[in-house]
Amino acid sequence: MSIYINSPLNEDSVKELKAGDVVSITGTVYTARDAAHKRMIAILDEGKKLPFDIQNQILYYVGPCPAKEGQVIGSAGPTTSYRMDAYTPRLLDLGLKGMIGKGMRGSDVIDSMKKNNAVYFAAVGGAAALISKSIISEEIVAFEDLGTEAIRRLYVKNFPAVVIIDCEGNNLYETGRLEYEKG
Amino acid sequence: MKTISVDKIIEEVEGVCIKANYCLGSDVFDALNNALDTEESQVGKNVLTQLIENAQIAKDEGMAMCQDTGMAVFFVELGQEVNIVGGSLTDAINEGVRRGYKKGFLRNSVVSDPLKRINTNDNTPAIIHYDIIEGDTLTITYGAKGFGSENMSALKMLKPSDGVQGVKKFVVETVSNAGPNPCPPIIVGVGIGGTMEKASIMAKKAALRPLNIQSNNEDIKSMEEELLAKINKLGIGPAGLGGRNTALAVNIETFATHIAGLPVAVNINCHASRHGVIRL
Fold first, then answer.
1. How many CB atoms lie within 10 A of CB B117?
2. B184: closest CA among A41, A78, A71, A103?
3. Interface size between A and B, measured as CB pairs under 8 A
4. Residues B123, B67: Cα–Cα separation, whole Å
5. Which residues, 6 or more positions from B161, have their beta carbon under 8 angstroms from its beta carbon?
6. Which residues of B touch A128 (CB under 8 A)?
7. Which residue from A14, A180, A173 is spatially nearest to A82, judged by alpha carbons?
8. Residue A1 has pLDDT above 80, yes or no
9. Domains within chain A, CATH numbers bracketed
């Protein structure tokens, strides 16, 4: 059974989510991956503002395929999240509330998630054609020159994801694996 | 002497890039269905169901099954009696990639310089490995190599005294450390022997081998089976959410090596194992 949640998130909605929850996300999410993260941090280092208000938002780590005629977006599954780890605590400190990606996160990120009350979701890596069906609209917000790595604002409807790490630091990758290890 | 024009090669490469990214091979599709039958974890079953549905959508609608349409990797076996006319073979392969990725709406994922990191916007250059063989055939094997799995690959220069146990330990450890990152259920390509680069190239070749073909060396074949069983006891499961199906196959290639060495390379491929073969 899916839990239906809306994005942007808020303090209370994040607290209700537990590692292992299967969710359907509806609302606005922003895309950013390696190059966009690097630029966002460079902007912050210059003392400037990010190109969008990150407060309570969800970042989706994705670099989509180009859209064919008639498509909103091309295939758009999650990329591996740990490459964003070096940049993530700073964004969490600015109010980022959720992230969608796949794969493990470092301890700095998990500590910062606990401190800032944030949640980490995974979408199924490689289910990119299927996932693209839940993306209703797409527009480039910043860094258009980065092509697939530009920051996009997406409106998603019933985007399928699983809570991997909740705001208390519970981690489905650890508990899920333990259950099936060795036996 | 057989003559093959670069125009023909461009056309074939363009086609194989698109087809491999849209249509999951029947070997992988069957393996995913088989995994769905054997998976004990409900969440794992849900993941596998999504992957099978995804493959169907990609094929039916003509779109990439995964947005990471990869760096284009080719293994070329060029018969020494083949005459390529109209230009260079390397340029023809790159032109085929350029056209295929544009025409197929595949993602451009290549940066021109590893440190400056500017996208080339046409997914070239491809990585091309050449072998000169006897005869008058040209065989080009394509793989779309996504980097979620590529990044989880590893190489170790073991000592001869580490032996077969050391090899097995390193392969299982590499998969265990990768956890959910490379999009399990994965295909594990292993290269044992040769030199540092030879082991890596063998591992890549092994990762692109069809899943229904095992090694024709009995000892290696039984090592493939043993490692697959060990890996599927790690508990990582589909998408790393816990379960029995962590790998769909372990494919091993071996080669002669030095008296002082035992190189082992592990190249991991995700479940969206996209490969195709052109024979001219």
1. 12
2. A103
3. 161
4. 13
5. none
6. 54, 64-68
7. A173
8. no
9. 3-182 (3.20.130.10)
Find the closest chain B residue to A123 by CA distance: B239
B residues 135..154 contacting A (CB < 8 A): 148, 151
pTM: 0.96
Q: Would you please indicate which residues of A are annotated as catalytic (active-site) residues? A: 37
* CB A12, CB A108: distance < 8 Å: no
Q: Which residues of A95-125 are buried (b: 16+ CB within 10 A; e: fewer)?
A: ebbbbbbbbbbeeebbebbeebbbbbbbbbb
What per-residue confidence (pLDDT) applies to A152? Answer: 98
B51, amino acid identity: L
Q: Which pairing describes strands A151-165 and A119-122: parallel, antiparallel, or unpaired? A: antiparallel
Question: Measured between CB atoms, which of A35, A128, A173 is closest to B65?
Answer: A128
Q: What pLDDT, on the 0 to 100 scale, is given for residue A183?
A: 54
Q: Is the pLDDT of residue A182 over 90?
A: no
d(CA B168, nearest CA chain A) in Å: 16
Contact B181 A103 (CB under 8 A): yes
Chain B interface, best mutation among A130, A152, A182, by max B CB count within 10 A: A130
Residues 6+ apart with CB under 8 A from A170: A18, A19
